[in-house]
Write a structure and sequence with these properties.
Two copies of one chain form a homodimer. Chain A is an alpha+beta fold. The first copy, chain A, has ten helices and four strands. In chain A, strands 2-1-3-4 form a four-stranded mixed beta sheet, with helices on both faces. The A-B interface holds A 88-99, 101-102, 104-106, 159-160, 162-164, 166-167, 170-171, 174-177, 180, 182 and B 88-99, 101-102, 104-106, 159-160, 162-164, 166-167, 170-171, 174-177, 180, 182.
Chain lengths: 235, 235
Amino acid sequence: MSVIMYERVGFEGRRPSPFSWRIRYALAHKGIEVEYRPTRFADVDIIKKLSGQHFVPIIVDGPKVVHDSWHIAAYLDQRFSDKPTLLGDDAGRNLNHFVNHWSDTVLSPTVRRLIYPDFIWCLAPEDRDYFRRSREKMLGQTLEAAGADRPRWQADFDAACLPLERHLGEQRFIAGAEPRYGDYIVFSVFQWARLGSPHEVVKPDTALAQWRARMIALFDGLGDRFPAYPLPQRG
Amino acid sequence: MSVIMYERVGFEGRRPSPFSWRIRYALAHKGIEVEYRPTRFADVDIIKKLSGQHFVPIIVDGPKVVHDSWHIAAYLDQRFSDKPTLLGDDAGRNLNHFVNHWSDTVLSPTVRRLIYPDFIWCLAPEDRDYFRRSREKMLGQTLEAAGADRPRWQADFDAACLPLERHLGEQRFIAGAEPRYGDYIVFSVFQWARLGSPHEVVKPDTALAQWRARMIALFDGLGDRFPAYPLPQRG
């Protein structure tokens, strides 16, 4: 029996959600058979009924329903402990959790201003109004205004990436010679930027750019399995 | 035979160096017998002759001389592998290394502006000119000018601490139920601020403040073993 994963689907089969990308990579790392169920923001009732909350990804494993990407990763590591580990021992799991917090509180809030003005065009047309309303309420400004001072947000993002650039200058993956869940967490943010906007946020010829290329290529090119940003005709 | 550690000593026995604090805690964690040799910036020739470079801390273990706090921690973990681990397995070591890079490229450059204008007064009088000259050259401005806009730098530091605050709201130490080297890396930055300046940089009643108190109390109150900032009479 395979695991079922509910994940966000965008315009014409696109997969722009960073949280779903973490779990897609985690499942590939584990080598688990998966049945994917794409959902739109408009499918919120299905998700709520299933998990009691409205975020994807969600994993259904027999009678077990798990939501929140961090909890899903921890669940998968324990449930499939005979497969390659995602998090390592207790201290390793906790350090990965710190990387998760760093990604959620620093990396994502910084990069989203570089993405949001263009992001709605990779969502399904019926999801765009919801996305705009909910994000503009959170930001207290329009998506366009939030991203208007692009050089400033790019500089903030570059500064936030300094520890990554230094770290990846010394080793192939965040976790060392081979990737683990910490790599998937951080990569998902770059995948979000890459598939959710027409702008390149990573400087060429950096350790970060090389690492991202390695991450895209993993698992038979998993990072390139879905359509890229929908240019030139928007939507 | 005990390990020898060369470390920076400040005004009247103070220990303001963050890099030495990491290693002091690492040595206490390992329970290793240590002979401490305090050095001033002015003792640079002794350090250069010993290690071929001019930074402390330095560890001397029989014929072996190790410098750079990260390399010292990795060395101690391997050399004393029968003692409690500092870094864990390979992936754990690499994640700790990421925390080290994050601390060095984000946390320290942010907090130093809150420290530098007052820091020279906890150095030995004969070290103050060197410190001022070298840091002002690096910053391209006086120590006072670098720290003048205190509310701005405090806001930057608070933002840099967000992942720590969230992480420590969920567990006692960065590494989990018990501290490991990642805790010592990060704590050393807070110890630098605490012993090197009269200003409090941590908000009371935060998870971060509670963690810092736990860190100070470790190993029979190691964090409070040396004199605090030299107020009210400066120097």
